[in-house]
Amino acid sequence: MGNLSRRRVLTLGAALGLVGAVDPSRAWAWSSSNSIAAVDRVTDPWDVWDDATDPLVASLLKNGQIPAVNTAFDSWVKNSDALPGGLPAELTTYLQQHNALPSWADQKKLKLGAQFNKRLGTYMFLLYGLGSGIMSTVIPREARNVYYSAGGADMKSRAAKTFTYGYDLAAIDAFEPTGHFVVTSNKTRLTHAAVRHLLPQSPAWRAVTDDGARPISNGDILVTFHSLGTFVYTKLKSWGIRMSVAEEEAYLHQWQVGLHLLGVRDDFIPASWAAAKQQSSYALTPIMGPTPEGIKLAEILLGLVSEVDRGLTKGILNEFTRYVLSDKVGDWLKLPRDYAARGLIQTGWPAFVAFKEGLTPVMPNTFATFDQLLRGIAMLFLNNGTSPTYTPITIPTGNRPN
Ligand code: HEM
């Protein structure tokens, strides 16, 4: 777990709204009695990978079968699509077992979750984009894995593929036969298994990986979930966005099913937001920190957003990122300061949210600026999801070439 001091961890946890961060020197002690599986045991998720998927994908890679699998996957998009023909028999058998919702999935909750996503979509796109997306660059293992994998060399395409996942999750029919999310999750799970096989063969990755551990353990995936779902939920609450208890549970349920589909064991999946926040304080906050790779990735990602920000200054993007992630994270990433933009955000954003949520009748004079910010980021997501250049997720066959 990194070398953050206890004080720094607590301060950062509070700044991100993920209160109660745990001393980084303390071992994993999150009990699975608070998980979907509700079993009373403590297991370290950093020692758990994906036994059902990893050997299969490793063998497909060794036998040179992945390019043909990717081609066959082109026609496999909707949850109700039949499995494509021409796949290796063992992959077909695997998908017959895994291409389904878990027995505990609750369709009613998933439907409500989809409506909730739609209702708060613009806030979510902003938080996922400028919050979670940039936070991923200060999660050292994730930043290095992304940087040295094949996708790290072409971040525009990689970001587009990641948007595909977010777009498919946010769709109103995400978990229904017409939706795409179950298929997209399976493709992502197979992609992660490929990365586990490929990255350890990268000399550049090995040179910066101190513990030599196989990448993308269950622990790593939980960390990423907290940088996405737990972070977004916590921020929405702290901004005073109204959500019913049923909506809160439904939003969590979408992520619970999403984690299951990515191969996370049910005894690690938090059963409530309280359990998720507690797990996040063990898993996410103590490990955050800057890396040269993460700094480069953040610069590229913010550059991509500014391409479509409809004329907004880069200062607003940088400062909004600082505002949602803390100045500590902004300093780590060396995001340039724009104190005028910060002043505008500090007072203008709460007023904007209050007006939009009907908590005050007074329209702030900064309304147009923030409305444009929300629309610009939402367009970035939605264009990717609906344009003819929709970017399918493909399983990599190599690492970053340079
Ligand atoms: C690929 C989502 C966790 C590292 C992908 C892709 C998606 C995705 C949609 C396919 C798009 C692409 O190929 O770029 C997720 C989600 C996660 C998660 C939703 C957790 C909730 C992680 C973690 C790591 C990681 C924890 C590393 C520590 C990677 C890498 C690739 C990838 C290296 C492949 C990039 C490439 O070579 O093209 N992930 N991921 N992911 N993910 Fe994840």
TrEMBL record:
Species this chain originates from: Cryptosporangium minutisporangium
Classification via PROSITE patterns: TAT (PS51318)
Limits of the ER-bound oxygenase mpaB/mpaB'/Rubber oxygenase catalytic domain: 122-338
InterPro entries on file: Lcp-like (IPR037473), MPAB/Lcp_cat_dom (IPR018713), TAT_signal (IPR006311)
Protein name per its UniProtKB record: Oxygenase MpaB family protein
Pfam families reported for this sequence: MPAB_Lcp_cat
PANTHER family: ER-BOUND OXYGENASE MPAB_MPAB'_RUBBER OXYGENASE CATALYTIC DOMAIN-CONTAINING PROTEIN, SECRETED PROTEIN-RELATED
